[in-house]
Write a structure and sequence with these properties.
With 326 residues, the protein is α/β, with parallel strands linked by helices. The protein is 43% helix and 15% strand. It contains 11 helices and 9 strands. The strands form 3 sheets. The protein has a 5-stranded antiparallel β-sheet with strand order 1-2-7-8-9. Strand 8 and strand 9 form a beta hairpin. The longest helix has 64 residues. The chain starts with 9 loop residues before the first helix and ends with a helix.
Length: 326
């Protein structure tokens, strides 16, 4: 007789393959679910940290407001603002839950208001701005381009540009023909040759919602001070800035530095506009805030003029390290 081979039902093989397939699919689904869960948790954690860092930054701004109001509230410091006061000398970093806050307050009256080239004193202030450009080793003819950018007419300055010129550029655009609202407008109007040129100027100028030029002699930068009067030597400006400045009135400054008498109308010993820079972090998440505040010199009321979360704020620790390495 011929031996018959044992019969193995086909169904058993199909069942085994089906089980293996189900296990593979289940494993893949479990892996995908775990991945999506981990991603969702990570996104949620990042959103929470970002929100918390943003609130910490806003808290830093609020603290700056309190410092500025306290400075005004003190009758001993109300009439003047110097680099010796608490709002200026504060360099401490604050530790908060899961993070920290760094902040600084800068007096914008220490800089040149770019909008002051408009108005009744516009021509005189444009001349001062040209001296500032020269002092910073920048082309003073750039000032013509800036004046044309913010003045209301279409008359072209000798080295300026108006709509007819801007419309030929790529991409075409028009001049603002109004007061600037942010210092970044300089990049649209002035043909800087490098970032260094823009940075040098940016440290000495500001944009304020007024056409008035008011410079605080107690906080002004060396370059701006040297540009205020045509006969004021740069060496004298350097000496004045390097000393401890705590003037109670403008007359005291002019008594020691007669050439500044020509600019007495733009000199002050107090300030109204301040820039607050805050850098907050929660874990590895960082929020950077730059706010412009106005303090009414009569009531002390603090008004928020602008708030920018997109501007880089340098860490004071990084600056200290960079200065040590240099």
């Amino acid at each position: 007789m011929i031996a018959r081979r044992p019969h193995r039902p086909v169904s058993r093989g199909v069942a085994l393959v089906s089980v293996l397939l189900i296990v593979a699919v289940t494993t893949a689904l479990a892996y995908e679910i775990a991945n999506r869960h981990a991603f969702t948790v990570s996104v949620s954690r990042q959103v929470f940290s970002s929100s918390q860092a943003r609130e910490y930054a806003l808290g830093g701004e609020e603290y700056a407001r309190q410092l500025l109001y306290a400075d005004w509230e003190d009758e001993g410091t109300r009439s003047k603002d110097t680099l010796l006061e608490d709002w200026s000398t504060m360099t401490e970093a604050f530790d908060v839950e899961d993070g920290g806050i760094e902040m600084r307050i800068e007096d914008l009256s220490s800089r040149f208001n770019l909008n002051s080239v408009l108005g009744a004193e516009g021509a005189q202030n444009a001349a001062r701005l040209k001296r500032l450009f020269t002092r910073l080793e920048l082309d003073p003819n750039y000032v013509d381009a800036w004046v044309d950018w913010i003045d209301a007419d279409q008359e072209v300055q000798p080295y300026g540009a108006e709509d007819a010129d801007y419309l030929l550029r790529e991409p075409p655009h028009r001049a603002a023909n109004q007061r600037a609202v942010d210092i970044s407008e300089l990049r649209l109007a002035v043909p800087f040759e490098s970032r260094d040129e823009y940075a040098r100027l940016g440290a000495n100028v500001t944009v304020l919602p007024t056409e008035r030029l008011a410079v605080n002699i107690n906080t002004v930068t060396e370059a701006v001070l040297a540009s205020l009067a045509p006969n004021f030597p740069a060496a004298n400006a350097q000496l004045l800035v390097e000393q401890v400045r705590n003037y109670d009135d403008v007359e005291g400054v002019i008594a020691s530095h007669a050439p500044l008498g020509e600019s007495a109308a733009v000199l002050r010993v107090g300030s109204e506009y301040f820039e607050v820079q805050v850098r907050a972090h929660v874990g590895d998440t960082r929020s950077e805030l730059t706010s412009i505040l106005h303090r009414n010199h009569e009531s002390g009321e603090i008004t928020l003029l602008s708030r920018n979360f997109g501007r880089r704020v340098e860490s004071q620790a990084d600056e200290t390290t960079a200065g040590t390495e240099a």
